[in-house]
Amino acid sequence: xxxxxxxxxxxxxAAEGQTAAxxxxxxxxxxxxxIHPLRFGVNYTPRHGWFHSWxxxxxxxxxxxxxxxxxxGLDHVRVFHLWPLLQPNRTLxxxxxxxxLAHLVDLAGEAGLDVMVDGVQGHxxxxxxxxxxxxxxxxxxxxxxxxxxxxxxxxxRTLGRALAGRPxxxxxxxxxxxxxxxxxxxxxxxxxxxxxxTLLAAARDGLGExxxxxxxxxxxxxxxxxxxxxxxxxxxxxxxxxxxxxWVFSGDCARRYGPRSPQVGHLAEYGTELAKxxxxxxxxxxxxxETGAPEPHIPAADAPDFxxxxxxxxxxxxxxxxxxxxxxxxVDRSLADFPELEYTLGLFDSTGRPKPIAEAxxxxxxxxxxxxxxxxxxxxxxxxxxxPGTRSVSGPxxxxxxxxxxxxxxxxxxxxxxxxxxxDAEYLAARGIKEVxxxx
Length: 440
Hints:
Elements: H1 5-15, E1 39-43, H2 59-71, E2 76-80, H3 83-86, H4 95-110, E3 114-120, E4 123-124, E5 127-128, H5 146-163, E6 169-175, H6 189-207, E7 213-215, H7 221-224, H8 232-237, E8 242-244, H9 253-257, H10 262-265, H11 267-278, E9 286-291, H12 303-315, E10 320-326, H13 356-370, E11 380-384, H14 399-409, E12 415-418, H15 425-430, E13 435-437
Parallel strand pairs: 1-2, 1-10, 2-3, 3-6, 6-7, 8-9, 9-10, 11-12, 11-13
Antiparallel strand pairs: 4-5
């Protein structure tokens, strides 16, 4: 098992109450801070009881999980509480549940880990978690009902105020892949914009002058789904940085091309470059916030090499904030009704033993810290010409996706540029793009 001294140094610093302040998104911009260290972390899934463990939160078990994560040399975790437990009534945020979350954040800091907190869960690993005041005879559309939006804003303000000022807090995210809820909560792109703007403002208000990142996340339909109401523009322009969740099962990518294919090995890199194309700020950072090796899409024997390739290829992107693996621990098979792939996504198995993929990730992170990669020159861009109704051309199986992957497999390092910016000389110069190519 590789144990990185970075984690030990972080634990010592945290114990002294002197965790280094994290750079703001502006400080993270590559042209202003070319030696900004990449962040490497994991999405924390409790080993005992999965997220149902919030019903009987055990600090000792949580601390053991977090110490194991820190032992891999990772520097941060993303954590999730359950919405119904935090806010069982529209006008009630439970102090005890908020205190549990704050305790977990403090335990992570003591282990040498910085923490990103997701507020509204929402959706986790194929299960939806709605408070009862949004359901049955009290049904409210969580994206469009004014009272439901106000309640979620109040929750985020409360969480922000409870967590503000902790030196190891990275920030507050609205929730995990909220666009998974659109099937039961119909919404338009304009309504999504209003929803996100309202909740982002509430999160900022909660964190106050202490600052911290304020972000939101969406699963891949936001980028590849024709007419999906969560848009690439919303992902790439709202919040302090862009989060991407490039999963190999989206568009059946791994099965379509093969688990060892260039398309799979470069998927997180591609997702990062696609996100940069939709941003109005050429220097906006991108966070690969979820990526993982789900079986059977990625067989266990291929998972270590997949992790190495994914992290190294993404690390070559200018403007990358970091990579956060999904997830820390396998779901115990004593828990029923999960999709098969959810049981094998962890770096640790359900007994807490590190898997081969954990060692591969730890070694890759250690290598990248020892010799930080210089961002790859991407002076040639492929033009992406699509409408909201043809967004799928940029996803696995789509003509644009395949053109970009061919160029990458041939040794190129293509950027992505939207058709509407392909003739904007000032914009292209800001991104370092010298040649624009339209896919044939």
